[in-house]
Amino acid sequence: MSITHLRRNVEGYPDCDTIQITFEFEDGIQTEQHPNPGQQYYGLKTAAFVPQNHEGRKVYRLLEVAFQHKLLFTVATTSTGEERVTFSDIPLKTEESGGYDSFSYPDPKYLKTVTKLLKAKGIK
């Protein structure tokens, strides 16, 4: 997990820059902590975005703790039968703009929603 400060805003937060959080997982072999120990899985490289304001920095810190506790990603079987790293049930905004789907901004409720979900998992 790494961060980059971007000199542009996410849609819906015009007055602040952006924090880009990059997650990278290499391909590997599942261990005893995974669903199918001994089987290969495919990695993942993705990025998430939060506005660089007070609430966004707080969410970034919460996401960092959740990542350290292995709550953001999991290994799962896809519909094609492949084992790969995928998102858990904590939503991440992987697009800076583009619409109102669950992965993009604008979403004025996202920061409060993700904070609440993380709190329910003991991350505060």
Automatic annotation (TrEMBL):
GO terms for cellular component: cytoplasm. Pfam families: DTC (PF18102). Pathway: Protein modification; protein ubiquitination. InterPro entries: Deltex_C (IPR039396), Deltex_C_sf (IPR039399), Deltex_fam (IPR039398). Its EC number is 2.3.2.27. Residues 1-123 form the Deltex C-terminal domain. It catalyses: S-ubiquitinyl-[E2 ubiquitin-conjugating enzyme]-L-cysteine + [acceptor protein]-L-lysine = [E2 ubiquitin-conjugating enzyme]-L-cysteine + N(6)-ubiquitinyl-[acceptor protein]-L-lysine. GO terms for biological process: Notch signaling pathway; protein ubiquitination. The keyword Metal-binding applies. It is an enzyme of class 2 (transferase). Keywords: Cytoplasm, Metal-binding, Transferase, Zinc, Zinc-finger. It is found in: Cytoplasm. The keyword Metal-binding applies. Coiled coil: none annotated. GO terms for molecular function: ubiquitin protein ligase activity; zinc ion binding. Belongs to the Deltex family. This is E3 ubiquitin-protein ligase. It comes from Bagarius yarrelli.
